């Protein structure tokens, strides 16, 4: 297994057209920890993940993976460098089968045996995917799709996982299951996770650190437990 | 009855050539949502390459191979140099660029080879086959045409279904953004798609030119019919293009046989118009409404 990696976002400014969704955001995710990024709609959370993965081109600032500069690389190259981005809305390719979706995730890696092992891993860990492997991915439920996209990202054996709203639209029982899965990836596989969530309570329950964004700026950053205990902050920005 | 069988068999042979052009258009449409108006001209140019090679070596099959190889390279080069700047831009950019490509390639062919009609050899005998004393309306070469297109279509289907490159091609076509995030180098995949389209187009040019003669605009009407075949099939379905080509080929051969061959081009265009009016999404489209 690859050693855990550190992800650093340095003073990143990014946006679309005239709107700057990120106005100088900095944060560091320590190796094998989870940092939750919280905030209202339009706070810049999704743009932040896009800036890391290359979907959004930062105008200023740097993205570093263990000190190596990833800024302005294409998304496919960032993925190959070890950063897997699971976007919101999930990006299941519904026209392909479950197995084809999974295989696609590891396709760029050399070593047929390695890829087969990663696939077998996914089937062993997620029985629901093993049972649906020949089915079109479009037939999966919302929760199953969320599991599929995370399992698919893992096919590349990434060191950093970027997750955008993995709990969106899931039943409470599924939310707890997905959060458990993310916690397990940190604890067992040593993944470094940047987790964007609207569901602040769930996210903080598994995160080590929390960062609150508002209108493109970091308004609070501290240990997850401290954020969860800050009543004023919760009322103001997190809504629970 | 005898005529009906002859027209049907002959139509199948023509139809498979339209299907081949349709397939090449589908390959590009699926990956880039660009309709390549230059596809026919590319096939014309590669057939001229075959023509030159055959003239110099005397070997039909050397020319055949040279045309296919040129089609593969031409497709890739055109995607990289001409199309890449128009990708992801407003639809009209790509339309203008590929029409420009059509004019450019036909101009180049005109400069090198002149405008006169040249006969292009067939791979096999074009004498009509008979079943006993019954003429079938097709030749040994027609059988070769049908076999070559079907083989190419099956090979493409196998490539898409069973190979990593095929999985990448499909992923990039269905959801390029998700594919990128999974490490697929979409730019290279698009180049591969164009190269394959160039290859299939080159095959179509080789197969049809014995019956159309070869000159700079010789593939224009074939392009329209190939496009119609692809549209009948839904424009993003390879199987649909083959079925569309067969339907169109047989239909037009009935028109030519029973009503007169002058009417064939008119009916080809009419078929395109009718399909676009009545069933614009085609018979086998895999995705939602089309954005033309």
Whole-number average pLDDT of chain B? 90
Low-confidence stretches of chain B: 287-292
Report the CATH architecture of chain B: Orthogonal Bundle
CATH homologous superfamily grouping of chain B: ABC transporter involved in vitamin B12 uptake, BtuC
Task: List the helices and strands of chain B in order.
Answer: HHHHEEHHHHHHH
Main interface by residue count: A-B, 26 and 19 residues
CATH architecture of the domain at 7-91 and 159-238 in chain A: 3-Layer(aba) Sandwich
User: What portion of residues of chain A belong to β-strands?
Assistant: 25-35%
Question: Over all CA atoms, what is the radius of gyration of chain A?
Answer: 17 Å
How large is the count of helical segments of chain A?
Answer: 10
The strand line-up of the biggest sheet of chain A is 6-7-8-3-9-10
What is the number of strand segments of chain B?
2
List keywords for this structure.
heterodimer; A: 240 residues; alpha/beta; Rossmann fold; 6-stranded mixed beta sheet; 4-stranded antiparallel beta sheet; B: 292 residues; mainly alpha; ABC transporter involved in vitamin B12 uptake, BtuC; two-stranded antiparallel sheet; 2 strands; disordered C terminus
Secondary structure layout plus pairing:
The complex is a heterodimer of chains A (240) and B (292).
Chain A lengths: L6 E10 L2 E11 L4 E5 L6 H9 L6 E6 L2 E2 L5 H6 L2 E4 L11 H9 L5 H14 L1 H5 L10 H13 L5 E5 L7 H18 L2 E5 L3 H7 L2 E6 L2 E7 H6 L1 H8 L2
Parallel strand pairs in A: 3-8, 3-9, 6-7, 7-8
Antiparallel strand pairs in A: 1-2, 1-4, 4-5, 9-10
Chain B lengths: L1 H31 L6 H19 L2 H24 L7 H23 L14 E4 L2 E6 H23 L1 H11 L1 H6 L4 H27 L7 H13 L5 H22 L4 H15 L14
Antiparallel strand pairs in B: 1-2
Helix pairs in contact in B: 1-5, 1-8, 1-9, 1-10, 2-3, 2-4, 2-8, 3-8, 5-6, 5-8, 6-8, 9-10, 9-11, 10-11
